[in-house]
Design a protein that fits this description.
It contains 15 helices and 19 strands. It is about 30% helix and about 20% strand. Strand 1, helix 1 and strand 2 form a beta-alpha-beta unit. The two termini are about 35 Å apart. By secondary structure, it is of the alpha/beta class. The protein has 2 domains: about 220 residues, Rossmann fold, CATH 3.40.50.720; about 210 residues, FAD/NAD(P)-binding domain, CATH 3.50.50.60. Helix 1 packs across helix 12, helix 7 runs parallel beside helix 9 and helix 9 packs parallel to helix 10. The strands form 5 sheets. Strands 3-2-1-4-19-18 form a 6-stranded mixed beta sheet, with helices on both faces. Strands 6-14-7-8-10-9 form a 6-stranded parallel beta sheet.
Length: about 425
Amino acid sequence: MRHVAVIGSGPAGYYTAEACQKAFGDAVRVDIIDRMPVPFGLIRSGVAPDHQSIKGVSRRYEATALSDNVRFVGHVSVGTDVTIPELLDLYDAVVLATGAPQDRPLGIPGADLPGVVGSAAFVGWYNGHPDHAALAPALTGPGAVVVGAGNVALDVARILAKTADEFAGSDIVGHALDALTGQASDAITILARRGPHQIAMTPKELGELAHLSRALPTVDPADLPPAAEDAVLDPGTRKAVAHLRAFADHPRAGDDARTLPIVFDFFAQPVAIEGDGRVERVIVERTRLDEQGRAVATGETYAIPAQLVVSCIGYQTPRVEGVPYDEKLGRFANDEGRIAPGLYAVGWARRGPTGTIGTNRPDGFLIADHIAADTADDSAKSGRPRLDALLASRGVDVVTFRDWQDIEKAEVANARDGAPREKFVAVDAMLGARK
């Protein structure tokens, strides 16, 4: 029997558990430990609330969670309730699947002004994550500036632009729905350091902007390279750029019934954020591409009025005491997932914040292969019983998967008309929903 502890209950964690089941059959016990009382990590608190089809993958994880040799150990904080050395003493393998839930710093003057938020915090706010439920972003004023050229930036812009009717069927939390539909910016600007050919946006997410009822995406035709140059792009990027070309051909917002412009500002990087006690404007510098395709500053600057800045420039994995960390890449230092004897990293904690949800599945199988190669069939470790005894001795209120099902039932029962659920946004409320 092998005993495996997985830290983090998001996609990487559950795919690792599934891979261990396939590798070892009944001869493995997997404990999935999470500091939150609710599972599924990024699926619950990172995927946009209006992308319910993507959230459906949690049903696959639920099947794994309800099997006899996998269990969810929620409301347990690694580093506080139990340490990594203690887990290594109890389990044959400890797998860090903590993701990358922290924002990379924007790192420009004024980035600490009220009104500047990272995308992890902003997305967590509208998804009801307890860490960010009290964010209260500034939503009314001259403009919202979204910094970044990836799908997270598109998610943020789309959520800011939607009307109340367009949130039908989503699981956006009530406090965010009320705030977003009760206030409005005059414009949304998406800043991208490089050009249309260098975006990390996918066609589906770009195409969604064209169907918003009150928002009109716009692109300056001068920012687009000659259409013939699109032929060198991969098919996905080529389709995405086709959307940008369609946005450039569309009449400007003033000539359209839609009143909220979503402006794609390419070859533009923020260099400072200014305001008297809070955000009032973003100072932007024009860029150009050098021979290697890197953005180079031109020295030309201008200001964009704004009351809100959302930085969507990437994420990093939180440090864990005693675990080697790669400062440059913002993830645990590892060799193809191996950190130290018995200690592994998987998913974004291993690779950094790259790839899709599905990318974590082969990652999980890689780690299961490592565990098979590095550990013996007959373990002397005790795993689950000693963890339970240790947590009980410390008075830790552990949440099981059955408890989570009670929480989920309460969220479904509390849903507004047409919504799949109304999430609890406080840990105490989650704990109180258990039967």
